[in-house]
Amino acid sequence: MDRAVFQEYWNKINNELFLRPDSRGRTDFLPDIAYRGLPKDCALLTTLQRLQLRVNRKDYTPFDTDDERAKELARRERRLIDSFRKYSRSMLQFGTTDWDVMLVAQHHRLPTRLLDWTLSPMVAMFFATEKIGKEDEDEPDGVIWCVSRSRTNEFLAGRLAQILKKAKTQQFDLEMLNEHFPRVEEFDEVDDPNALIWFEPPSVDQRIVNQFAYFSMMPGVMMRTDVWLNDHNCTWWKVNVRGDMKAEIRKRLYLINVTDRTLFPGLEGVARWQKAYYSDSV
């Protein structure tokens, strides 16, 4: 690829990540922005929402309504939390509350209602440039969602808004969730059922630290973050990542130490890093 062409694109995408389209050149308070990179433009579904639900497990009958599906998904969420806690108790050194379990389980690929974000645009770019196309097909464009957490908080109401105001903060943490909502079902009963909140995780895992991880969450297992954002356009913008630029972007990220090795500490990260380094397709 022509170096000048790529450099022009690299400058363009960096400007788009750091400057809101309506900023008129003014830089936002960057730590306020949460980023989510995806290798193709798709719905913002939680891993829990991606579960394949075909029948109600109580009687193995198909679902007739969305309400039935929602109740079944909530029931399975409870079973996932309780089962993970039971079978991994000796390894849950940080804690065993619902939120403790969900936090740890999320990073070990258990389906949860937590949606992953990062406060690093470069980390988001890494995930947006993941190669998912076949060798004989064009790579699809990736996308990076950029959301202002303070602007989303302006739409909070009721108890959730009061909790943040009293704590003088813009996000929830593990202690606040454990104090106010000991069980995840209690969070679903808040008086602002259409709320979008941000959850800053403690550093219980080096992956959380290295990925500059953040989470968003909504009351109710069926609530969609992308639907909420599309109803509140002033809170976010989206950056397109060209599919034909993914490989070159990955090489640039490699030079600034945003790699599998740094984002996935441990042997898994080393193996992924080496695979990428010795592959001619990346």
Weakly predicted, low-confidence segments = none
Biggest sheet strand line-up? 1-5-8
User: H/E series, N to C?
Assistant: HEEEHHEHEHHHHEHEHEHHH
> What is the overall shape?
globular
| Mean pLDDT over all positions | 89
The overall strand count is: 8
Strand content: 5-15%
The total number of structural domains is: 1
Radius of gyration: 20 Å
The helix content is: 40-55%
Secondary-structure class: alpha+beta
Main sheet makeup: 3 strands, antiparallel
Number of helices: 13
Give the CA-CA distance, first to last residue: 13 Å
Describe the protein's architecture and organization.
The protein is of the alpha+beta class and about 280 residues long. It has one domain (about 5-275). Helix content is about 40%, strand content about 10%. The protein has helices spanning about 5-20, 65-85, 100-105, 120-130, 150-155, 160-165, 175-180, 185, 205-210, 225-230, 245-255, 260-265, 265-275, and strands at about 35-40, 55, 60, 115-120, 140-150, 195-200, 215, 235-240. The strands form 3 sheets. It has a 3-stranded antiparallel beta sheet with strand order 1-5-8. Strand 2 and strand 3 form a beta hairpin.
